[in-house]
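Lab notebook page, bench 4
Experiment: in silico fold of construct C2
Operator: M.H.
Input chain length: 149 residues
Purpose: comparison with the prior construct
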Amino acid sequence: MAQVSYYHLTNSGAYINTADTTERANLLADGWTEVYSPTCGIYQNASDYTGLVALYRLKENSNGARYYTTDAAKRTTMLNSGLWTDEGTSGYVLPSTASEPAGWGPLHEAFNASTGFYDFTASATEWAGFGGNWVKSTTVFALVPSPHS
């Protein structure tokens, strides 16, 4: 299967990314709005492009924050803490250690210290606009195709 759109939505400061068009439609029907449609591309199968790794999605049990990681050990640690629920594989991306192909860009992570929510975006505009209580990670953890400007 080829690259698919990866949608970026928000609801009262919470953020979620999805490549599932049914989930996207349900979120929109529940009052979520799209920040970027899409924020980037993503692959649905590890075999769609050389070197892809799983992008795991977890949900924080107390506030519903979503967290994304390509690190299987980190995912396991978070799940074993009892504070997070596994929401499966969100898609497949290149790890940050890969050489960045033309047309690809970073998937950034930011954390809002006042709300406890995370935001993961491939939009350079959104990333540049984070201020105030947002703490921007200085490490790119994944590379994605077709990032939004």
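Observations: The chain has one domain: 4-145. The mean pLDDT is 94.
Next step: discuss at group meeting.
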